[in-house]
Amino acid sequence: MIDGKTRLCGLIGNPVEHTMSPVIHNTLAEKCGHNLVYVPFLVECGRIAEAVKGAYALNVLGMNVTVPYKSDVIGSLVEVDELASHIGAVNTLVRTEDGYKGYNTDMTGLYRAMTSEGIRIEDEEIVLLGAGGAARAVAYLCGAQKAAKVYLLNRTLEKADKVAEEVNNAFGREVIVPMLLTDYPKLPERKFLAIQGTSVGLAPHEEDVVIEDAAFYQKIHTGFDLIYKPFTTRFMRLVREAGGEAYNGLKMLLYQGIIAYELWNRVEITEEEAGLVYEKLKGNIGK
Ligand code: ATR
């Protein structure tokens, strides 16, 4: 029941109509018995500062932020969490006494998704595909979580070089090794955790994949694709065909939402509750 005590959370972005975040947060509110509703807000180009100010004035408890405002929103915040600040992108606003504080739960969500599947980053040798916004954030996460080495493979070497320089400077060690995508045969002879952070293979281009060569997949013990549409990407299929384990990005979506919900409501969501939300998300994408 919506009543006089109902708290409001929401998503700001453009577009917002395809979001699954309302499923995550409204399900959690129901399961936890919190008097809270979560709705999408379409914010027109150039109006992000007004939107954040207005949300605060309206006593909105928390916000998620999506494309294209994850960087632009930072100028409207009173504080930014350290990891989000390094990454330069915020997806969660938490109400404080004098304004909103920004977090990046996309990355802490990816970390929790990996941990829940028993995948480690610490001391691991990792292959990261891509050097765009998403992959750059993963590179920071790997640095922060003490990966042994991250081979960052990208079609455009200059972008891989730039990400490597930034992350290596931030952590004071040569954790990221930039490489041209086509140079994958030069990877050391061992098995890696591979994280697929490019936009290649995203529906409707489901048959696309950054690297086709089966020899590359022989070097992967675990593949994690940030994409969850389709549910099984071509990258995942190739990893499995070569005998590795493969995961999609749906649990990353799940946990970025769960961590935001925990920050807003100062609660801890159990793995059982997380599982219920995960089933709803799967239902939502027809799985
Ligand atoms: P996002 O914010 O989702 O990361 P992005 O910043 O546009 O999106 O980055 C897209 C990533 O996918 C980049 O690493 C891009 O490679 P380039 O830096 O060379 O552009 C990669 N990508 C996109 N299409 C690709 C393709 N056909 N082959 C290889 N890589 C591709």
Key traits:
single chain, binds 2'-monophosphoadenosine-5'-diphosphate, 6-stranded parallel beta sheet, alpha/beta, 287 residues
Gist of the model:
This protein has 287 residues and is of the alpha/beta class. The protein has ten helices and twelve strands.
Question: How would you describe this structure to a colleague?
Answer:
It contains 10 helices and 12 strands. It is an alpha/beta fold and 287 residues long. Bound molecules: 2'-monophosphoadenosine-5'-diphosphate.
> Compute the gyration radius: what is it?
19 Å
Q: Can you list the ligands bound to this structure?
A: 2'-monophosphoadenosine-5'-diphosphate
* Number of helices, where a helix is a run of at least 4 consecutive DSSP H or I residues: 10
SS elements, strand count: 12
How big a fraction of the residues is strand? 15-25%
Q: How are the strands of the biggest sheet laid out side by side?
A: 2-1-3-5-6-4
Distance between the termini: 30 Å
Low-confidence stretches: none
- Helical residue percent? 25-40%
Biggest sheet features:
6 strands, mixed
Q: Summarize the helix and strand pattern as letters.
A: EHEHEEHEEHEHEHEEHEHEHH
Q: Give the CA-based shape.
A: globular
* Helix/strand structural class: alpha/beta
Q: Write down the overall mean pLDDT.
A: 97
